[in-house]
Amino acid sequence: MDRPDGGLGQGRMADTGAVLVIDDDREIAGTLREFIEFRGYPVVVAHTGRNGLAFLRHTSISLVLLDLALPDMDGIAVLREAEALPEAPEIIIITGNATLESAMAAVGPGTVGYLTKPVDLPRLGAVVERVMAQRRAVNPMRNNCSQRHR
Q: For 54, which of 4, 80, 105, 134 could close a Cys bridge (C-beta 3.0–4.6 Å)?
């Protein structure tokens, strides 16, 4: 999608239960999108860090699946900028180059998972469901919004 709002609506008024996939590998991004959409959540995809941050600034996003190796900027830099947003999403790091250093750098207040490629989809699904359930429990309005997507 080319629009920064991803077709999900402007602003950050309500948590839509939406997921943003930031990965430059179009095949992996497509697989992740299909998997998450099948679980009932709206998904937008960005193939660069800058585009991903634009979505986050203009769209209500609950969860980000973030690749660390992006063509335009370091995934950790994207992570830090996302964490600094007024309504920061939860973030799952997905990387094909897992190292102790990258895992330690990825630890932050919004990081809820660190998965390696190829992604274990059942494990990813469990993390996504846990995150979304926690977000609904914190704000019952989120429960009403995300129920529409199931």
A: 4
Q: What is the pLDDT along the chain (150 residues), one digit of tens a residue?
A: 333 333 333 333 345 689 999 999 999 999 999 999 999 999 999 999 999 999 999 999 999 999 999 999 999 999 999 999 998 999 999 999 888 888 888 888 889 999 999 999 999 999 999 999 988 888 765 444 444 444
- The class of domain 19-141 in CATH terms is alpha beta
Distance CA 35, CA 29 (A): 10
The string over 75-102, giving b where at least 16 C-beta atoms fall within 10 Å of a residue's C-beta and e elsewhere, is: bbebbebbeeeeebbbbbbbbeebeeeb
